[in-house]
């Protein structure tokens, strides 16, 4: 791998000592340590509320101790998004990740949490994949009163928009807004504890000669560089937040509508006014949200081409893209591997690391990808590690390859 370290402008970091202190790893201290990037980089993919499994793989990689404190030394740990949804423990997993991000620099390490499509979904009100157990983890002793108050507020909103609801609609409404629903929505909002934190993070990170992201990079996506791409995504999030705030203030949408409900409401208002509602600019901007990178299929959050398209279809374009961006590797998650294994594609240039950690939902297992000592190695919670690139790498025929990355 290249010996220089390149980080996005939002996360500039300088290392003066490169020592891996985790007990499971042999120390490494190159002679060129002052100019080298981190000696060890670990990436972990989708968590989806699988807190025990997340802890298990973090401990196996030597990144946390039995007290769940950072023990990874100077390791750079990249989490590629999709911590929330599906599983029951979104809150616990996010709390741990946030704390590790603050602890790692004390050992000259670094934690880089990236945004996945599910982080974005929660920030913009798409709650399709939130479990009842997950909502319950956000509940307080005031949640029942909060639920009752919001029901009354929603009835007023519905009446003002010409579709009043009666008490017969209360039971299905309560089922759609369980205890903890409103607290969770607030927590992912611009002023919420997780919403504020997530909005500070990027979609794509560059460490050494490797790009990390959630879904993948479409070779046909037009952007100048990684900083430009991240900035564009942050701008879209800021635009969404300001538009949503404006629509709520104008009572065009109810503040706790889900994204789909709000789209339906905004579209109805647009149609009824003949395309000229009082808040036309905000409604128009909101209705065009699916065309932007927050929701588009070719965005770094949602793109699956690197995992699913035939390699010969994209091979040349992938090579050109990586050459243009001056990196050697790309790591993505998002698409669960059929055999729950970390895999390489495009001549060991692209690594896919979503192995279905939430076993109760996907049936998979926790895993991690490590870059260290000119090797790229896959680690699993329930199996021996496998060297994918570098000395001792397992070839397709089941042998080993003696040459490191070129």
The gross shape turns out to be globular
Secondary structure tally, helices: 14
> Hey, roughly how much beta strand do the residues contain?
5-15%
What's the pLDDT, averaged over the residues? 88
Computed CA radius of gyration, to the nearest angstrom: 23 Å
Q: Give the topology string: H per helix, E per strand.
A: EHEHEHHHHHHEEHHHHHEEEHEEEEE
Structural class: alpha/beta
What fraction, in percent, of the residue positions are helical?
25-40%
> Please, how many domains?
2
List the helices and strands and how they pair.
Layout: E1 40-44, H1 51-60, E2 76-79, H2 90-103, E3 110-113, H3 117-123, H4 132-136, H5 143-160, H6 170-176, H7 181-187, H8 193-198, E4 204-207, E5 210-213, H9 226-249, H10 259-272, H11 280-287, H12 305-308, H13 311-325, E6 329-332, E7 343-345, E8 350-352, H14 359-362, E9 367-372, E10 375-380, E11 383-389, E12 393-394, E13 400-401
Parallel strand pairs: 1-2, 2-3, 5-6, 6-8
Antiparallel strand pairs: 1-9, 4-5, 7-8, 9-10, 10-11, 12-13
Helix pairs in contact: 9-11, 10-11
């Amino acid at each position: 791998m290249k010996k220089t370290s390149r980080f996005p402008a939002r996360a500039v970091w300088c290392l003066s000592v490169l020592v891996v202190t985790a007990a499971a790893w042999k120390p490494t201290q190159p002679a060129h340590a002052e100019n080298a990037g981190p000696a060890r980089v670990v990436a972990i993919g989708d968590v989806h509320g699988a807190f025990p499994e997340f802890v298990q793989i973090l401990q196996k990689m030597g990144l946390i101790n039995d007290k769940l404190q950072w023990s990874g030394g100077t390791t750079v740990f990249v989490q590629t998004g999709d911590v929330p949804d599906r599983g029951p423990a979104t809150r616990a997993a996010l709390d741990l990740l946030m704390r590790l991000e603050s602890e790692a620099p004390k050992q000259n390490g670094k934690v880089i949490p990236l945004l996945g499509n599910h982080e974005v979904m929660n920030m913009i009100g798409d709650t399709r994949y939130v479990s009842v157990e997950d909502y319950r983890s956000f509940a307080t002793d005031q949640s029942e009163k909060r639920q009752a108050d919001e029901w009354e507020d929603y009835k007023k909103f519905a009446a003002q928009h010409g579709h009043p609801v009666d008490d017969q609609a209360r039971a299905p409404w309560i089922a759609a807004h369980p205890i903890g629903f409103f607290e969770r929505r607030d927590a992912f909002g611009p002023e919420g504890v997780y919403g504020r934190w997530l909005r500070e993070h990027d979609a794509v990170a560059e460490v050494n000669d490797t790009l990390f992201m959630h879904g993948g990079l479409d070779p046909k996506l037009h952007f100048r560089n990684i900083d430009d791409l991240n900035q564009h995504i942050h701008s879209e999030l800021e635009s969404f937040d300001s538009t949503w705030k404006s629509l709520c203030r104008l009572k065009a949408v109810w503040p706790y509508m889900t994204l789909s409900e709000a789209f339906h409401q905004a579209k109805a208002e647009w149609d009824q006014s003949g395309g000229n509602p009082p808040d036309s600019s905000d409604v128009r901007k909101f209705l065009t949200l699916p065309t932007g990178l927050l929701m588009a299929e070719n965005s770094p959050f949602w793109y699956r081409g690197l995992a699913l398209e035939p390699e010969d279809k994209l091979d040349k374009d992938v090579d050109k893209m990586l050459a243009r961006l001056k990196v050697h590797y790309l790591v993505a998650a998002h698409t669960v591997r059929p055999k729950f294994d970390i895999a390489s594609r495009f001549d060991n240039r692209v690594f896919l690391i979503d192995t279905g950690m939430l076993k109760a939902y996907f049936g998979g297992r926790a895993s991690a990808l490590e870059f260290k000592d000119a090797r790229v190695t896959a680690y699993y919670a329930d199996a021996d590690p496998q060297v994918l690139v570098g000395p001792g790498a397992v070839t397709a025929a089941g042998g080993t390859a003696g040459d490191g990355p070129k």
